[in-house]
Amino acid sequence: xxxxxxxxxxxxxxxxxxxxxxxxxxxxxxxxxxxxxxxxTRLEENEKHLETRLKKSEKDVKELRGLIGGQPRVxxxxxxxxxxxxxxxxxxxxxxxxxxxVFSNTGSCYNPSTGVFTAQAxxxxxxxxxxxxxxxxxxxxxxxxxxxxNGEQLVSxxxxxxxxxxxxxxxxxxxxxxxxxxxxxxxxxxxxxYDDGMNYNSFSGFLLFTM
Length: 211
Ligand SMILES: [Ca+2]
Prior knowledge:
Strand content: 35-45%
Bound molecules: calcium ion
CATH topology of the largest domain: Jelly Rolls
Radius of gyration: 41 Å
Structural class: alpha+beta
Number of domains: 2
Helix content: 25-40%
Largest sheet: 6 strands, antiparallel
CATH architecture of the largest domain: Sandwich
């Protein structure tokens, strides 16, 4: 073998080596590319998962806002007398009962000096009242009490002193109110209720949800 042949052999060997290296690099690049593609797929899946969780969180936040901050908080409860004991009534005309012992009045929609609840938000409300007919009432005297909305009679309690004194009853209604609507409890003319520190007669209400 002469020097020229040696040189050719070396060049060929070098070419083969280079080809092998290029092929190796190609494979390496392909493997890395496949890995990258898998990573991208995984990231896309993660993104979708995060998006779903974010949407759920946004829905939860909306619901919570509706429960605590998104609507006015309105609730009240009051009993008829602040002290003493006795009859309220036998007035010659229908009279709005003024429940003056206020237990709660969030939103200040109930006015104890008039006995009237005035809605400040359009919504669905719950109201309840009770009335007590006691033995100190003269025989035959009735207790007739009604829940009123803007002068309209909704639900009532009725009792009469007879051989069965000390009767009481309650009634309630769920009603839709517009802002400014008024709700109160009416004692019918010529009837009476009895109360003392036990607070038998009460009037309560609260906003269920705005509309
Ligand atoms: Ca009775």
